[in-house]
Amino acid sequence: MGIEQTAAKIVDAIVAGLDADVAYLAFPIVGEAKLREITRCNPDTVDLGQYLDTIRTHAHAPSQDLTSPAFLIESSGIRLVCKALQPDGPATLIVGSRKPSFPNDAQHILLDVAAAQLAQGLERQGTARNTKRLATLVEHSSDFVGIADLEGRPTYVNPAGMALVGLDNLDQLASLRIFDFVPDADQPRLRSEIWHDVMHHGRWTGELQLRHFKTKAAIPVLLDGFLVEDPENGVPINIATVTRDLTAQKRTEARLRSLNEELAQRVVDRTSELEEAQMELFHASRLSAAGQMAAALAHELNQPLTAMTNSVNAARRLMMNDGSISSLVKEIMAEAAEEALRAGHIIRRLHDFVDRGGTDRRVENLPRLIEDASAFALAGSDASGVEVRFRTDQREVHVVVDRIQIQQVIVNLIRNALEAMRDRKRRELEVRTLLLDPETVEVTVADTGSGLSEHTRDRLFEPFFSTNRNGMGLGLSICQSIIKHHGGNIRGRPNPGGGAIFSFTLTAVAADASPDDV
Amino acid sequence: MTSDRVIHVVDDDAGVRRSLGRLLAASGFAVRVYESGTALLAVSASLSDGCVLIDVRMPGMDGLELQSHLKGAHIDLPIIMMTGHGDISTAVRAMKEGAMDFIEKPFDDDLLLGTIETALAGRDKVRRRNEIIEATARVATLSRREREVLDAVLVGRRNKAIAFDLGLSMRTVEVHRARMMERLGVRRVAEAVRLAVLAQIDSQGL
């Protein structure tokens, strides 16, 4: 029976039992904002409309103490008794009579009984609702919620809990103990530590594993186990748990951990890769210094040797038709010419010997190549206090080059720049790449150093020319031969803001090109 | 001595300029020397005959740049590039750009004079044409491997690199290389390169 029907019956009983002229009940209904009203009156003695406003005013007055005697009002020949039905709610019962004796003791007792009945009904209505709400919450919770008796026999597990451990219906619980929910590995902990804490301290919280009844797989969970006590007397009646499945979280953690490890490994790999490349570059620059020296020597000696061969041959030709010159002199001249040529061959062989490694051209990622070379060039103490900027073309640029050689050029240009800025206040170094057209990329190293005098500018790439006392004057000459060998150009010019700008060009290719395409 | 036997020598080295001038003069040529490409271009309007001998490696404007300037100014005198050793790729570029020939420093006088005679004669289109046909025919006799070795030499690859590229041993590459030279009938790498470039010109229909 609903609260409304119960209330109506009680009100009818009051009117009949008390022989009342008027009765009024106001009470809240779950889910409704407006109070529900039940009114009764004796139409022979009372016009309800005459009193309703008065009654409502009192009904909605601040609630009275439940334990105090009924509140009595006399109004226009009627005596009204008001009784609050809820400690902090709006439910009110008002009963009235025209009889001056109202209410006598018996009527008071009857009124109290009726009020108590109504109050109980209203309270039950609220409790039922709360219980239902809690039950829904438990049923729909995505956590494992379970209750067991004090012997460890489960009496209830919510649907999420059943699904988590692979149980199909609640009947299965009858044959189980809570220990059956945990894999062997965690049994000792459950039986000693956890059980003990729940029973003696009322609660245990921590990570544990459950066991899937079908697959036997272990399920990582965060378990909250506690005692449920009787609210009346505080005696434990149940044990319960709210347990959260940590599988997804553990998986995420593991993935994060492995990602972290992978990242750390990649940093280590990349670092050692870089170190290796730097070592290689370092060795190569040492080794090829000899080769470059030989190449420069060969070129420089070739010129006087060419002149000498030509001169001797010119003299021979002039003497050829002159009968006054002895054949011995002609023979000597021929020998001199031959010897000069032989010197040329020796130099060629020397050049071949030191350069035997040959060049090894591959498709290289230019920004990456520059990055590695710069890291190497900037490693020394000369670079401290220098502001370094990299501006690389947004487009991915690949070149077909001998990586070591081109890096050597970059290292050389950067070292020269650092050297030129050593005693300067403003020390800025800029390395940039620019795609001049789809097939040509320009690499530029600009500094704010001592700059280039006009005299220097004309002789920049001349071998053995140096403005540095300790320099051999081979650096830029070597750079030039490397770049020319790669089909590019190198040039130096003053930096408008002070300092020097060196730039060289290389042929850009598609990333998947093979060296033969160039 | 006719006026079309003028040789223009461009070299930044004074010793080379002077000695080359004397050698060519002793061989019956009229010689004009220039210390830079700029100096030659300054009088380019008056260049109508003869042959230009250019040092490929010069400060400022180098031999290849001078060549392209001359081409731009429509001066089509035959050009012979003087290269340093190992400058095969530069030589190939020069020839592709239209140089008649190249010669490695230091050179024998007979080789130089022979090259100049050929270059001067090469102005005769028919002779040039025959030369190209001859080169094409000789290159065509090469086996696939020999051809691959020649192509690699042409881009400046050395034996070790060629062996790596072709997946062969150094020894095998040396054998292919020797056979290639033999079939082409040449003794110097430079000559082989020259033939190969001429054959390429033919295949490009120039």
Textual characterization of the structure:
The complex is a heterodimer of chains A (518) and B (206). Chain A has 518 residues and is α+β, with helices and mostly antiparallel strands. Chain A has helices at 3-18, 48-59, 105-140, 159-165, 187-201, 247-320, 327-354, 366-377, 403-420, 454-459, 475-485, and strands at 22-27, 36-41, 71-75, 78-84, 92-97, 144-148, 154-157, 203-211, 218-229, 236-245, 362-365, 387-391, 398-401, 428-437, 440-447, 490-494, 500-509. In chain A, strands 11, 12, 13, 14, 15, 16 and 17 form a seven-stranded mixed sheet that branches. In chain A, strands 2-1-5-4-3 form a five-stranded antiparallel sheet, sandwiched between helices. In chain A, a hairpin with a 2-residue loop joins strand 14 and strand 15 (440-447). In chain A, helix 9 (403-420) packs antiparallel against helix 11. Chain A starts with a helix and ends in a 9-residue tail after the last strand. Chain B has 206 residues and is α/β, with parallel strands linked by helices. The model of chain B has no long low-confidence stretch (mean pLDDT 85). The chains are: A alpha+beta (518), B alpha/beta (206). The interface between A and B is large, with 42 and 34 residues.
Radius of gyration of chain B: 18 Å
Distance between the termini of chain B: 33 Å
Continuous helix count of chain B: 10
- Unreliable segments of 5+ consecutive residues of chain B: none
The number of strands of chain A is: 17
Tell me the structural class of chain A: alpha+beta
Quaternary class: heterodimer
Helix/strand structural class of chain B: alpha/beta
Question: What's the average pLDDT of chain A?
Answer: 81
Q: Per DSSP, what share of the residues of chain A sits in E-state strands of 2 or more residues?
A: 15-25%
CA radius of gyration of chain A is: 52 Å
Shape of chain A: elongated
Q: Give me the strand/helix succession of chain B.
A: EHEHEHEHEHHHHHH
Q: Low-confidence spans of chain A: pLDDT under 50, at least 5 residues?
A: 513-518
Tally of separate helices of chain A: 11
Total number of β-strand segments of chain B? 5
Which strand-content bin applies to the residues of chain B?
5-15%
Compute the separation of the termini of chain A in Å. 96 Å
